[in-house]
What we know:
Elements: E1 5-9, E2 17-21, E3 38-44, H1 45-61, E4 65-71, H2 80-92, E5 99-105, H3 107-119, E6 126-130, H4 133-139, E7 144-149, E8 152-159, E9 164-167, H5 177-194, H6 196-204, H7 206-210, H8 214-234, H9 249-258, H10 265-282, H11 288-300, H12 313-320, E10 332-333, E11 336-338, E12 341-342, E13 352-353, H13 356-367
Parallel strand pairs: 2-9, 3-4, 3-5, 5-6, 6-9
Antiparallel strand pairs: 1-2, 7-8, 10-13, 11-12
The structure holds nicotinamide-adenine-dinucleotide.
Amino acid sequence: MNNKFFINIPVMKEISYPIQIKAGLLSNISWIPKEYKKIVIITDNLVKKMYGIQLKQLLQKKSYEVMIFSFAAGEKSKNIHTFTKIINSMLKCHCGRDTLILALGGGVVGDMSGFISAVYMRGIPYVQIPTTLLAMVDSSVGGKTAIDMIQGKNLIGAFWQPKSVIIDTSCLETLPKKHLINGLIEALKMFLIYDKVNFYFLQKNTEDILNFNKNKLQKIIYQALIIKTSIVSQDEKDNHIRMILNFGHTIGHALEKVSQYKILHGYAVAYGILIEAKISEILKILPKKQFFIIQSIIQRLGFNGGDLKKLNIKEIIKNSKIDKKVHSGKVNYVLIKNIGEVYIDANNHYVHPVLDNIVEKAFYEVCGV
Ligand SMILES: NC(=O)c1ccc[n+]([C@@H]2O[C@H](COP(=O)([O-])OP(=O)(O)OC[C@H]3O[C@@H](n4cnc5c(N)ncnc54)[C@H](O)[C@@H]3O)[C@@H](O)[C@H]2O)c1
């Protein structure tokens, strides 16, 4: 894959950081900021074997002092125990504020490493090196960092922007298809809320993209990041427009929790998109025809409302009430007005309370019961 893009986007007025998208970036480390000599690679056990050891050796050859700390792959590790263990290891190795963290892996590694960077000695720099499609199109950009608690997902965290984001698209060559789909769902969400043209590009090219067509995948990553950076630069701290990135996530997060994180994040969001689009249709915000277009692409990506029948909607609704978007006991939803456009009410609100019985109705209609 050729180097097609170098994006330098001011994510906030004061902070600007580069996002590089190119195949092969991991084997040429000219992107490492020159001022750091001590480097900590944080990764998971699978990515460590695939890319971590090699990166460590490459850095050592260039005379960097490098440590690598890893944890068991998967959402179950995104917790306070992993966090404490890595912090302790860094303290033992006398890592000071002159240390640079490299977050090498998927969204779990990115969220964990970002949070450690945000609080270690009151904040040290880090570079996001996403290796899953989900992390490339979404979680590596925007500075949201977090870990999960028993009570729910991402309940402890901080806003902490990386120094740069390095996307080596050749990492996608080892990514299993289920994780490709996992990331495509977040890209689909981005297009549904903001970009009709690229929604239809994804719709038209679904098969090629599912077959790892490199150029089309690169276009999807680039276009999704254009949306993400545009939204984050308007609202870094999630006070207004950034909340629209949570379309599909009120239900999605609750589903992940109810499944004890056995359902992948993107998969839970796919069902969340279906149910939240259905809620929008029931409330007469989204035309029926548009709902069917959304349902059809979600089905082509392999998600069928019928799969939800096994789940207990009351349990999902109960768990949605621990979401960060809950205000005064009301669960808030991002609703969609059209493909590429969210619903904003007369008071300029981006999220809207929805009654439990409407959520239940949407769930049963999507399940076909
Ligand atoms: N901070 C944000 O803005 C944001 C946004 C969306 C999602 N998230 C978070 O992201 C997380 C999900 O991220 P994820 O789906 O990347 O999960 P993940 O980090 O668990 O990665 C999925 C699996 O893929 C493996 N893997 C990673 N790169 C690989 C590669 N190149 N080849 C083969 N295998 C590879 C990992 O070892 C892991 O087993 C969730 O915790 C979610 O909350 C955060």
